[in-house]
Amino acid sequence: MPYSISVKDRMMYSHTFTFGDGVPFTTGCTSVVTATLEGEALGPHEILIDILVAQQLLRECCALYDHKNLDTLAEFRRADSSLMNTTVEVMAKAIYQQLLLRLRSHHAEHSSADGKGLGAITGLRITLEESDVASASYWEANAKGLFT
């Protein structure tokens, strides 16, 4: 894509991991979250999205998990009620889904009223960095027309 904007935020959370037959262990994580929005062309006002809007929406998503124990959140339970391992991959997808909902809502509210809709955005990628040498991302292939 020729155009992209990225905004960042961070969140700190605790969670429990269990791998194989291992003993569960609880740990904490501070993740730097980057949301990258892409488009093939600019929309009205020569922007993909108002950067302030993107930052605010990402903050709303991170606030859902910031300073929380993820083990207590229903969205991270399997059908049998067991805990999921909330790896950075899982958290990248959770943020993606939450941000996409908010972006679509923003688009529905603003697309015709003020020309600040998001029809030019054709891609969204979420990257979580858990250190300066390790990160994970989530995006969905063939996401063109996310808001049209």
TrEMBL record:
Q: Which domain of life is it from?
A: Eukaryota
Q: In which pathway does it act?
A: Cofactor biosynthesis; tetrahydrobiopterin biosynthesis; tetrahydrobiopterin from 7,8-dihydroneopterin triphosphate: step 1/3
Annotated InterPro entries: 6-PTP_synth/QueD (IPR007115), 6-PTP_synth/QueD_sf (IPR038418)
Q: Which GO terms describe its biological process?
A: tetrahydrobiopterin biosynthetic process
Q: What class of enzyme is it?
A: lyase
One family name in Pfam for this protein: PTPS
EC numbers for this chain: 4.2.3.12
| Record key words, sorted | Tetrahydrobiopterin biosynthesis
- UniProt GO molecular function: 6-pyruvoyltetrahydropterin synthase activity
Q: Which family does it belong to?
A: Belongs to the PTPS family.
Query: What is this protein's name?
Result: 6-pyruvoyltetrahydropterin synthase
Organism of derivation:
Calcidiscus leptoporus
